TrEMBL record:
Keywords of this entry: Membrane, Transmembrane, Transmembrane helix
Pfam families assigned to the protein according to its UniProt record, in alphabetical order: ABC2_membrane_2
Protein name: ABC transporter permease subunit
Regions crossing the membrane: 50-70, 82-103, 124-149, 169-190, 197-219, 257-283
């Protein structure tokens, strides 16, 4: 005689609250933003993002201290120039964290698990892109805010004009974050191994900067300043700087700036194309990974 029994454990349909698409999108965004700073991960994952964040703050704090003692306006770093001055640190942060967000799920083949639930492919991409954009924005906007607030506390002259410059610099930080996150995510998404992803993002940054720098140097030597300015469209930091200078009234911090308002509009259109194009590429990439 068998001693087996069948138990009625009373399976029931879920009748509770369903939070919907907005909750899913917000949860994915928060999860990826935490991952960008190593939160919820081992201690070694937190070292690099927080170390780079601290390094980003040091020049701003030093600049405010120098202004407090000297009262010389030039002692304060220009708000719109800060991201360009610290572009190496920003690029390292992008290179180390973009693979965490863009390639980790691909590497471990867990993308299909996300899409086995009611998660839209576009929501998945937007949440990741927004998280990396927010992380980069915090990296750049916080030091700029320290400069502005520190200047106000230490009796900075022309506070009204400084406010306009500060707000313009924040718009520039948003553009920097959008463009850099778009480029970094696309490069990292096609390099499943994290080490290769870090190297690939750094290579894109260094090669574009080196090639554009060489072209601009040759153009300047031949007094062809038009070519020197337009060449800046092909490296991300110079590209956004063109928008800041031509459309937001900032002072140039790059070797060459595309001429006139036309140059600014072309640069802004190229920024938009990079962002939208990256979303399309990432959508196809993660959709394909979800089917494999």
């Amino acid at each position: 005689m068998s001693t087996s029994t069948i138990h009625d454990i009373g399976y029931r349909h879920y009748e509770g609250r369903r939070n919907g698409r907005g909750y899913v999108l917000r949860s994915l965004y928060v999860h990826n933003l935490r991952a960008a700073f190593g939160l919820g991960r081992p201690a070694r994952a937190k070292v690099m993002p927080f170390l780079l964040s601290a390094i980003m703050l040091l020049p701003a704090a030093g600049s405010v201290a120098a202004f407090a003692f000297s009262k010389e306006p030039d002692a304060l770093i220009r708000y719109a120039s800060y991201a360009n001055i610290m572009q190496v640190i920003v690029a390292i942060f992008l290179a180390t964290q973009a693979p965490v967000l863009a390639s980790r799920e691909v590497r471990f083949h867990v993308i299909p698990l996300y899409f086995s639930r009611p998660v839209d492919h576009l929501d998945f991409v937007l949440a990741k892109a927004a998280a990396l954009t927010t992380a980069l924005l915090a990296m750049m906007a916080v030091p700029v805010t320290v400069l502005y607030v520190g200047g106000l506390i230490t009796k900075m002259p022309d506070s009204g004009e400084q406010l306009l410059r500060y707000l313009g610099a924040l718009v520039g930080c948003v553009l920097f974050a959008l463009v850099l996150a778009a480029i970094g995510m696309v490069v990292a998404a096609f390099t499943p191994r994290r080490g290769f992803g870090v190297a690939a993002v750094i290579a894109v940054y260094m090669i574009s900067a080196a090639v554009v720098g060489a072209v601009q140097g040759i153009a300047e030597a031949n007094t062809n300043f038009t070519v020197q300015g337009w060449a800046g469209l092909f490296t991300p930091f110079n590209l956004v700087d063109i928008v800041q200078v031509r459309l937001l009234g900032a002072q140039s911090s790059s070797a060459g700036i595309a001429p006139g308002v036309t140059g600014g509009l072309v640069a802004l259109a190229l920024c938009a194309l990079i962002v939208v194009g990256s979303i399309a590429v990432l959508y196809r990439r993660f959709r394909k990974a979800g089917l494999s």
